[in-house]
Design a protein that fits this description.
With 420 residues, the chain is of the alpha/beta class. Helices cover 28% and strands 24% of the residues. The strands form 5 sheets. The protein has an 8-stranded parallel β-sheet. The protein has a 6-stranded antiparallel β-sheet with strand order 14-15-16-21-18-19. Strands 4-6-5 form a 3-stranded antiparallel β-sheet.
């Protein structure tokens, strides 16, 4: 559970903006489990701009070809200190510090034939010039058959460990799926001697065939391309998370991507500055689906300037209980615009049910309690319920639950056994 600079600042976030969001998180969200602050892509490019990437960008590198923070945006990195001072400030707030990195080795290091730390090789000898990202021109892939390739990743991760990095978002790894790069990067983390979470992205057409490899070599992996604040992006995650949710387990999480809530796009890749275009119902649906499927949660907004309802969305106790302490998370039913999910608490006898309306009209239906996973003989005599977003207490009779759900909306129910 954390914050990432991408949705709001794109490639251009500054140290002051990172700290402002970290301070807000520490004050308002940390008590609910939000604990990680991530600097996204191009932190090593002084001339980074909103709305896209600079082809052939001039990057800040050290003498052995490793990315260093741009001083015009991260002034505490002066004198070769890198992200160590910023990470220390984040840690002092009781939070964790993360950064984004592209796979491979900078083309600039290859061009300049910079040495690979701890070896007699140079960058041009370990690069794979045919392995390139189709949307960013900063790097070449590595020739993993060359002994200097692992040495480069080892040197990069040793630097990150020295800075105090806790979380790494490694990009261009799983779309297409590059098993060798993933293994090499995880090995470099192990070689660094510091525990760091490895999050892989973007997950274009990511197949369950890779599940065991992902579990062995990462802690998080994206299951889609970038998600933005439009309903089509959210709706598409229903099918993906239904596929991945049964396989979630501690330390190995399928990731439905960032939550584009609150005030975003101050200097983003897509669109003008705005408060999220998702309605409050759509935001609740997104938050509920992510929690019911136990996806990691990563915010993309500017926290200090986001509207008050954003804080309420992110601190809903039942939604967060499902995320942190539930099992058997699964889709039970999909019929027309109706989608039903269920899960069981791992800390009590409570059950959770989520009823979604993916359509454009109000949905009025009855559903049997047993179809919410409450048992074959479930009746209201056995259960009390609370709708978590409205805090409405339910006390029905018989065997069915009646509901009315707004377009693109959701009801999240917490069922508690009645005393017998």
């Amino acid at each position: 559970m954390g914050w990432n600079s991408w949705d709001c600042y794109g490639t251009t976030v500054t140290e002051a903006e990172v700290l402002a969001n970290a301070e807000y998180m520490a004050a308002h969200l940390a008590p609910y489990g939000w604990d990680t602050v991530v600097v996204d892509i191009q932190w090593y490019e002084p001339a980074a701009k909103a709305g896209g990437y600079n082809d052939g960008a001039a990057l800040v590198l050290d003498e052995v070809g490793r990315q260093m923070p741009a001083l015009n945006r991260f002034p505490s990195a002066e004198d070769g200190r890198g992200f160590a001072p910023l990470a220390a400030k984040i840690h002092a707030l009781g939070l964790k510090f993360g950064l984004h990195i592209m796979r491979g080795i900078p083309r600039q290091a290859v061009r300049d034939k910079l040495p690979v730390a701890g070896t007699g090789y140079t960058a041009d000898q370990v690069a794979d010039l045919d392995s390139v990202c189709d949307w960013n021109t900063d790097n070449y892939g590595l020739n993993l058959n060359h002994p200097g390739a692992q040495a480069y990743y080892d040197s990069q991760l040793a630097l990150f460990a020295a800075w105090g990095v806790d979380f790494i978002k490694a990009d261009d790894m799983v779309g297409p799926y590059l098993a060798g790069e993933i293994q090499s990067y995880q090995q470099a983390i192990r070689n660094s001697g510091r525990e760091m979470i490895l999050s892989l992205s973007p997950g274009r057409a990511l197949s369950l065939a890779h599940l065991e490899h992902l579990r062995e070599n990462s802690q998080m992996w994206r299951v889609s391309d970038d998600l933005w604040d439009n309903w089509d992006d959210v709706e598409a995650q229903f099918a993906r998370m239904a596929r991945w949710a049964p396989h979630q387990r501690s330390g190995a999480w399928a990731d439905a991507d960032m939550l584009p809530v609150g005030r975003i796009a101050l200097r983003a890749e897509r669109g003008p500055e705005r408060v999220t275009r998702l309605s409050l119902d759509e935001q609740r649906t997104m938050m509920t689906l992510w929690c019911m499927s136990r996806s990691p949660l990563m915010l993309g907004c500017d926290l200090p300037s986001s509207p008050p309802e954003t804080l309420g969305l992110l601190t809903n106790p039942d939604a967060l209980d499902v995320l942190k302490a539930s099992a058997g998370n699964r889709e039970l039913l999909r019929e027309g615009d109706l989608v039903v999910w269920a899960a069981e608490s791992t800390t009590s006898a409570d059950r959770f049910g989520a009823v979604f309306n993916t359509g454009t009209e109000v949905l009025r239906r009855d559903i049997l309690l047993r179809d919410l996973g409450l048992g074959e003989t479930a009746e209201w005599d056995h259960w009390a319920a609370l709708e978590s977003w409205t805090q409405e207490k339910l006390d029905g009779t018989g065997e069915a639950l009646s509901f009315e759900i707004a377009p693109h909306g959701v009801c999240l129910y917490r069922f508690t056994p009645r005393a017998t």
